[in-house]
Design a protein that fits this description.
This protein is mostly helical. It is 66% helix and 0% strand.
């Protein structure tokens, strides 16, 4: 009896492997969703902390929209795919490293400007950017695992919780979200 050969799936007609498919999907998402969002929110015309809070608000809104339409919290695909394929697929890992560096640069630049304006306590911008990005990814991953959009509310508190914000013209760190909101209005 001859073994039946299974035809390749339709996606493999266009893509040679799972990693090539993943790379194409990541690139498409990066170019059509992430870059426009980063460009809009991290524009130099926005005050430094507004860049961060605006992006986090957009990210929370995107997740809530996807939850309403798909019925699931999807998380941030660059982080999710990185956790699932990054160690197994070197080309995927390389692409995700480039994307991660671009994302980190946006946060680091905003934090550098915030330091220059003395609206956050002195700190190393890269370390704070890494902490902020890790917290964002953790919140999104937790919301995805629990499929609970209420978990996303923690995104709005991140700048207050991670960055040592100061009242304008003082050395006193901000203690509440309301004070933070008042301080970032130009």
């Amino acid at each position: 009896m001859r073994a039946r050969l299974r035809p390749k799936g339709k996606s493999y007609h266009f893509f040679d492997s799972k990693s090539v498919l993943a790379l194409a999907a990541l690139q498409h998402l990066w170019e059509t969703v992430a870059i426009p969002a980063y460009d809009q929110h991290f524009s130099q015309s926005n005050p430094p902390l507004v860049r961060i809070t605006g992006f986090l608000d957009w990210l929370q809104g995107l997740q809530l929209e996807k939850f309403r339409t798909v019925g699931r919290v999807l998380g941030w695909p660059f982080f999710t795919v990185g956790c699932e394929l990054g160690g197994q697929e070197p080309r995927v890992s390389e692409q995700l490293c480039k994307i991660g560096a671009a994302e980190l640069f946006c946060f680091e630049s905003a934090l550098h400007d915030a330091l220059g304006q003395e609206i956050i306590e002195p700190a190393e911008p890269r370390a704070k950017a890494l902490a902020l990005r890790a917290a964002v990814e953790g919140i999104l991953a937790r919301a995805r695992i629990l499929n609970d959009p209420a978990e996303l509310r923690a995104l709005s508190e991140l700048p207050t919780n991670i960055l040592c914000l100061k009242l304008p013209g003082t050395a006193v760190p901000l203690s509440t979200h309301e004070e933070f909101e008042e301080s970032i209005v130009p």
